[in-house]
Amino acid sequence: MIARTLLLLALSGLTLTACDRVDPNSPLGQRQALFKQMLNTSEDLGGMLRGRIGFDAKEFAAGATQLDQLARQPWQHFPQVREEDSSARDEVWQRQERFQQLARDLEASTAALVAATTQAPLKAAALVAPVDRVEKACKACHEEFRVY
Fold first, then answer.
1. Is the peptide bond before 130 cis (omega within 30 degrees of 0)?
2. What total of structural domains would you count in the chain?
3. What is the mean pLDDT of residues 3-24?
4. Does the keyword Signal apply (predicted)?
5. Which residues contact 55 (CB under 8 A, 6 or more apart)?
6. What's the rounded Cα separation, in Å, for the pair 112 and 78?
7. Residue 78 — φ and ψ, nearest 5°?
8. Structural domain boundaries, residue 138
9. Segment 37-57, tens digit of pLDDT
10. Cα–Cα distance between 133 and 24 in angstroms, integer?
C-alpha cells in the first residue's frame, strides 16, 4: 500500500512538472533555446578572458562567430502578441522600435567582436573591450525589457 501511494505521488509530481514546460517548437521555446545558447557561448568567451577557462585563440574566434550568428536569430521568434509565459515585459510589444534598436546594437557588437578576432596574433587583452560591448548590449536590453 505504501509503495502504491509513493508511486502515485511520484507520478503526480512528474505530471505537474511536465505542465510547466514550454513547447520547444513555440516561439517562446525557440527564443529561450537561442538565448540559452547565447548565454553559454558568451560565458565561455568571458571565461577565457577572465581566466576561468584557458584562452584558446581558435576556440575564441569560433565562439565569437557562433555568438554573432546566434545574436541574429531570436528576434524573429517574438510574435505580434505577447505570450502568457514570456519573461519579457509588455514594453517589448509596446515599444518595438526601441526593442529592435537594442537588437541591432547587440548584432553590431557581436559583429565587432568577430572582426576583432581577425587580428593575428589573437591576444586576449585585445578582446576585452569588444566582449565588454557585447555584455553591455545584452544588459541594456535586459534592463529595459526583461522581467526578473
1. no
2. 1
3. 55
4. yes
5. 48, 49, 124
6. 25
7. -100, 105
8. 25-79+86-145
9. 999 999 999 999 999 999 999
10. 30
